[in-house]
Amino acid sequence: MRRLVALAGAAISLLLAASSASAEVVDCTPIETVPIVITVQGIYCLKHDLVTSITNGTAILVNTNNVTIEMNGFKLGGLGGGTGTTAYGIASYSRQNVTVRNGTVRGFYINVYLLGGLGHIVEDLRLDGARGHGLFLGGSNLVARNNFITNTGDGAGSSAAGIYLDSGYHISITGNIIDSVSETSSSNGIRAEYAEQSVIERNEIHGIIGGGTRNGIYVGSGLRNVLRDNIVTTSTGSTGIGAFSSSDACVRNVVTITFATPFTGCETSRENDSF
Fold first, then answer.
1. In whole angstroms, what separates CA 56 from the centre of its chain?
2. What Cα–Cα distance (Å) separates residue 10 from each residue in 13, 14, 15, 21, 114?
């Protein structure tokens, strides 16, 4: 009996912990309509789904430092802008400590765009149907983790990426799942240009399709990046993992041989496999 009581108590504790982890954030400033410009530091949240049909500009623009956008499991939708939209879902420029988490952003040209600044965190998002890039990052000391990015591309531009990193320092891109990226000229699961001393780890990338160049993970100019424990699969493609910056290390990655070149670059290459 004591064992049953102990087990029941443990189960209840686990349920309470899970409930607490996903509990709605209520001590926050609600975002009731979009477009909106945030100019005061603090925690902002969604209390219901929000939609917009804007074709340019930004639905939620963060124009100050130290802002958290807690989506509470709700959706910010931009499909009404159509396939030719150039609008962004959530964006900031040269700010510090912007966090976006726990919800869905759908149908913008770039769903989440944090360019410049430092200390940003993007986590636990579903980034669906971006017409250009699911997540676009640039700056230093940034984290993108545990996001599901799907159905990216086929918009007004000629290139698309699940995650695009532009000029980043000390970036952690970990635990993301990227599925179905398609564009006419260039399709990338994760693309990094001018990244330095950053880590791309434990990501899954599937279905890099469309025309032109198709890459699972591509790292261009930069310095001393680590690509570790990533899985890249697709039916056909150009490069599974290509790391061309100075002194990049590729360790324990797995890529399908359906890519014309499963691995290339990678100044240090160890325990990688293709199948």
1. 21
2. 5, 6, 9, 16, 41
